Amino acid sequence: MNFHSPLFTFLLLVVVAPSEPSDRFLSDVNQLRRQYALEYNVSDMHELIWSNELVEILKPLDWYRAWPEARKTWRYMYFNSSVIPTKDIEGQLILFFAKTQSQQKEYIENSKEVLERSAGALELLNPHQKFFGCGPKTEGDSKLTVCLMGPSGDFKLFDTSGQSPERFLEDVNGVRRTYANQFNVSNMHELIWNENLVNTAKALDLNAHKWSEARITWRYLFIKTYNTSSKYIEKEIEEEFLKLNETEKQSYIDKYVGSSLGKPELLNPHHRFMGCAQRIGKILCLLGTEGGLTLFDTSLESNAKPGSQCYRNYENVNGLCVATKQEKLTIRINQIREKYAKLYNVPNMHQLIWSEDLLKFSNDGNFMIDPPQMGKTMRHVYLPKFEYEEYFDFFIESRIENNFISKDPIERNSFFASNVQTSLGDLELLIPLQKSIACEYMRIERDKKEYVCVIGPSGKPKMFNVDTASVTTHVAASNCSARYKSLDGLCVPENPTDVSYFGNSSDFLNDTWKESLVTLASSLNCSGNLTCANKTWRYTTDMVYTGITEKIDEEVDYYLTEMSQDEFLEFLKSGETHHVGHLELLNPMQTSIGCVEKLLWDFTVFCLLGDEGNFKMWDLKNVESKAGSSCAPGYENDDGLCSIPEAKSIVETTTEESTTGASTTSSAPKKSNVETTTKESTTEETTTEESTTGVSTTSSAPSKRRLLPKSSKKHSARNNKKTGGK
Q1: Which of 86, 100, 119, 575 counts the most CB atoms within 10 A of its CB?
Q2: Which CATH class is domain 165-323?
Q3: Residue span of the signal peptide, if any (predicted)?
Q4: What is the CATH number assigned to the segment(s) 6-150?
């Protein structure tokens, strides 16, 4: 490099750097970054934007003390404010770029200065930094200008040989699109760079014979250099694999399926993420989230349309399945959730899925009036537009670290308690039991809209522990909800296409479904009191099917641990005039249920339970009775639950009188594909009930459905409390 080129022109402009740097100073720093980006073909050198937030972070820092906050979400450099910085900065850069590649690598990866303090002038060339803020400090009689740069806490320098992982990713996606169109691949997905895979690649022991983590959530390959064009990648794939006949291809796959196929690994259409790390003498690339090997039909006989079978929230862009704008946002949030789940061994951090249900609510939302379900089955966080589009990760992680993680336990508890009734801000994105998200512009004032993310189904959040004891005793993704599985630190749905904010009634029921109650629920508009209830049924609302077991656990845990016995008994007594929340679902005398979704302003699931009009709670002091020992006639003890035995009827016809004189006939719903228990009926039974509405309804009950499979794990609020959960 010619160090007398215009590359250093900016330094000549900074004649005297003021203690409060001017806009011109920032402009000159960006010009320096631009020149290096052009010189070394750096594809991701970002313009630095002035950040008042970094300035505020800098102000209280004591120059004479260590800065533990540094190297997490920001780094720093400094220079003497009273002298021309040209000579010092230019000297540092000349000295570094005069080193060999191996010497540069040694300095960046092993230098104590870089790892524990600052890389000096080189900090100005970290391509991943996007924000810049400076202020004055004093060292003896000297006045210093200290500049903070974020969002990266790690020092990263571009490949000084001119090679780029970002360009390599771009070339790989170009190859995937080419083959998708050439071979009519219907589900070839664009690869997105994933820092969690990068960190995994960095930590793997290259001397290990086999990696136990491999072929579960990712596969791998080695490359020699990032400086590989798409044409060269195609050439290697052609020589290694595509030129083989079908028998030879199968033999090749059988031989390497347990390790790595090499370049053909790049052809797995199901992979959506890639992350690479420089290792000794080579580069290790991981591709996920598929651990199995899937290759497309290379016979050229496929008639499928390229990009016609994309993953949920992906769209066809010239034959390649590309994530939508909403999906890219969700992916970035989930990467943050995965990062913290692994860092703190969070046992129940669930993957967020973009929700069309919540999007409907967001489209109709008016935050000038508090939505009724906010704080019950959903929560929210404001996301400034410019953050959402480009700088999301920095702002989120920076504020989470500064406002919560870095605080002591008392301060963390105080922050949580002060904001839990409204919004926890960015921390809302880390609540483990949330599973659905949607973001949209919503009106918060008469003439003002904000970009708001609505998250559910938890309305009363519990945060994971960040103390050492929790990290050492928990295992990430070890306590997932039913129909979720552990995958690389997150609880992910077994079938993402089935996930919705409201969920499915068949995921939820443990009582006999009654269509007459569904019909009746559809016609009612009940408030908090029971004026619309009658002697044969009660109701509950402010709920969704998704996560109902956790919701019940939370309420029971609250009632049994936060209330005194007298307070709890008084609360139960209020059941004479009001419904008692989700405890209604635990009324032992109820035998049937029917629910309906209220999608307008209520935006909730409303359930009627029968055939008991009074709320009855089991005796909390009774330790002698055995579960399921006092079942009603016609019911038998089934592992603690009073259930209709297989030999008897569970098909039921119910007639209720209506003041309208209308007669409604309803058949049982079809068997759900997620049912866990089905019992066949052999006889029929008819029941007649009087209704305050007078509707005459005939209904056939479906097969009995159980709340959870016996083998399913469920979250326990009581257990979470014992292990220190908020």
Answers
A1: 119
A2: alpha beta
A3: 1-19
A4: 3.40.33
